[in-house]
Design brief:
Number of domains: 1
CATH topology: Methane Monooxygenase Hydroxylase, Chain G, domain 1
Strand order of the largest sheet: 1-4
Number of helices: 15
Largest sheet: 2 strands, parallel
Helix content: 40-55%
Shape: globular
Radius of gyration: 21 Å
Number of strands: 4
CATH architecture: Up-down Bundle
CATH class: Mainly Alpha
């Protein structure tokens, strides 16, 4: 029986990948305009050192009029940026968020099936616009909707990810075709699909290689990274963060993970199609935990891929009779995925690990998601390399 993965059923397209099907709205939403305007003004407000008082003075956030996905995501982006600014925008981190911010943030996050903290979806997937609306979603024609401090380095860091997400659409479509062909025993079509997947991965890696063009390691570490840390395993918030007024949390400090590329669904989907396995350990538990921070439909697509056959399993089943072209096509994809992970590891060392820690909440040995990232990224790379068909 054919294993058919329908990207559209999960809000995903070959043209845009996990980016929203319609461009995020540029205009400030009609509901809660003061909140959205304050968020848009963060680059001007954060240097004042008074962002907490500014947020506390905002009128009550009204969420009853928000129903569409676009409205909810716009609200989530605004509340997430303001929430992170409230915690990290002044020298001493608070132990609690005021109810005025905490309650609507929790409410909107619950409606979207995510946690009330800035996640990759709000930071990248829903945080861009096209300069020329008739042009491509690509570097050179995209800009951010929302910033913290602003500037080229912050924008470039995020826009690199937007470009990658768009390019991943072709990879996801090819992965779906590959699984359908494998389930039908059609090795020729599976090989063709994997070759297309390899082409898409080449484009993704090419975009990733452009990170240093306009994102300086020193600027990233000192101006971009501090605002995206979470509350878990963070020495600046040893007791987590209390969300005042949120009855579900009963006044207990919450320990959510910070924004991280591990919340992108691209690589887990590719692992599922190619058959790149990760050993059952603390790293795998962390990757599973990241699904709490992904859009629900994207997790659904990942689970659909995981329920299907893998290129590795097909080659293993055929054994010595496996077409050389099929094994070569898979190995090309796995090798490019390994190169992507190796480059990520290199950037982590350059942009974070080799920088000088200047604040308790911005350590060089812990990632924004609260993990020993160098150890984890090395393991990712090595497990991918070990998956190559011999």
């Amino acid at each position: 029986m054919t294993h058919h993965v329908d990207l559209h059923a999960f809000g995903v397209t070959a043209e845009r990948g996990f980016l929203p099907i319609a461009d995020p709205a540029i205009e400030i939403p009609a509901a809660n305009p003061e909140w959205h305007k304050t968020a848009r003004d963060l680059p001007a407000l954060l240097p004042s050192g008074k962002i907490r008082a500014i947020i506390e003075a905002l009128p009550e956030f009204r969420s009853e009029a928000l129903s569409s996905e676009e409205d909810l995501e716009a609200a989530m982006r605004t509340l997430s940026y303001l929430g992170m600014a409230y915690v990290w925008g002044e020298p001493e981190s608070p132990s609690a968020l005021p109810a005025r911010l905490a309650v609507p943030w929790h409410e909107i996050a619950a409606a979207l099936g995510r946690e009330p903290i800035l996640s990759y979806a709000s930071y990248a997937l829903w945080n861009w616009r096209r300069l020329d609306e008739s042009g491509p979603i690509a570097l050179g024609n995209i800009a951010l909707l929302q910033h913290f401090l602003g500037g080229l380095d912050e924008a470039w860091f995020i826009l690199i990810h937007v470009d990658i997400e768009r390019r991943a659409g072709a990879a996801l479509a090819a992965g779906a075709r590959a699984q359908a062909a494998i389930s039908d025993g059609n090795d020729a079509d599976a090989t063709s699909a994997l070759n297309d997947l390899g082409d898409a991965l080449d484009g993704i890696l090419g975009t990733m290689k452009r990170m240093p063009e306009a994102c300086d390691p020193y600027v990233y570490y000192h101006r971009v990274r501090p605002y995206i840390f979470g509350w878990r395993d963070n020495p600046a918030l040893p007791g987590g963060l209390v969300y005042e007024g949120v009855t579900a949390y009963a006044g207990k400090g919450q320990t959510f993970r910070g924004e991280t590329g591990a919340q992108s669904t691209i690589v887990p989907c590719l692992d599922a199609v190619l058959g790149v396995d990760h050993a059952p350990d603390q790293l795998r538990e962390y990757l599973m935990e990241m699904r709490r921070y992904m859009p629900r439909k994207h997790v659904g697509l990942l689970e659909a891929f995981e329920a299907g056959p893998t290129a590795a399993s097909r080659i293993a089943t055929l054994g010595a009779s496996a077409p050389k072209e099929l094994a070569a096509a898979r190995n090309r994809c796995v090798e490019t995925l390994r190169a992507f992970r190796a480059l990520h590891l290199e950037y982590a060392a350059t942009y974070i690990n080799r920088q000088a820690a200047d604040a308790t909440g911005n350590p060089t040995d812990v990632g924004t998601g609260g993990t020993p990232f160098m150890k984890y990224l090395k393991k990712h790379r090595d497990e991918t390399e070990a998956s190559l068909t011999k």
